[in-house]
Amino acid sequence: MVGPSHGRQATSDDRSPVPLVDSLGRRLDYLRLSVTDRCNLHCRYCTPPRGSERTDRSTLLTWEEMEGLCEMFVASLGVNRIRITGGEPLIRRGLPDFLDRLRGRLPGTELLLTTNGTLLAENLDALARAGIHRLNLSIDSLRPAIYRAITGRDGLDRVLSALDLATGAGFAIKINVVVLAGVNDDEIPDFVEMTRDRPWSVRFIEPMPFHDARRAPSSWAQIDGDRVREIMERSYDLRSEPCPPSATAAAYRVPGFAGTVGIIYARSRRFCSGCSRLRVSAQGQLRTCLYGAPVLDLKTMIREGMTTAEMDAAVRRVVATRAPNGQEAETARSRAPLGSMASIGG
Ligand code: SAM
Q1: Is the pTM of this model over 0.85?
Q2: CA of 162: how far to CAs of 73, 109, 119, 171, in Å?
Q3: Second label for 253, Cα 20 to 30 Å away, from 26, 56, 60, 260?
């Protein structure tokens, strides 16, 4: 069974994991685990139009179930990086203990966290103790009023001071900025400036029409990654930076700047050919493509007592039929809306 004490035994008798590879030869070794679908911000591009879905807690994976799953993905399926995300991961009670236990069980696995930063300062010590050294921090505006207009809450100062504390404590930081036409696109140069003296990596993300493409504001289509690049090039000399094949961002550096800037072509989906990601939602739904439907209900499999070997085989089966790219995954999903990034696990 995939459980806190049985996962290792039932996997592969201490044999090395057999890598998870899809029919196009893409190796899936990066798991994004959403630990909650709740968030303390209500970003207008993320929260569904009728407000955040309130899910019944019993429908969420327990910490123990998540530990067992992580162990299976690492020990049996060859995952070597796990990103903890949400919703806002730092709002789920028990996260520090979960991370400690995960670190104990998976000493060689890289653990990463994506957060909106509102609760980061008080969690930095716990994250460092769990061996997390790299953080993705979402900050969509550097102006308090715009930050509030996008997220529905004040608190930019708090997030910026957590950013400084985390940098001082030695965390490597990527800053995610969803670019919304007419809302924060005029701040692109200000974000580039953040990389002048600090080793941060600022990544501009194309907004994805998650809830229902037909109802997404039409302005979202007005700005894409190429337009972001043009805006940067008006003021800066951008030089390409090398990226690993599985990267989802094109990266650049302004000569002499300490950090880098990047563009995540999330809507244009230019990086599917190297995608190495698996996603598990807080309710245990596995996705092999952000744009696709869930392909396995891992929670039910665990609660029905499936062995790790059975689950390993089921995961390999769905990976074998993984869509070649996000466009095809979206078509195959038929016209059902995607839900929100918070419910899928961003
Ligand atoms: N709460 C955490 C945070 O804010 O970073 C983690 C979860 S959040 C869903 C992860 C990332 O997804 C954030 O950087 C957020 O801006 C991004 N995101 C959410 N909805 C999006 C959308 N519709 N298009 C593009 N990015 C989106």
Answers
A1: yes
A2: 31, 25, 8, 11
A3: 26
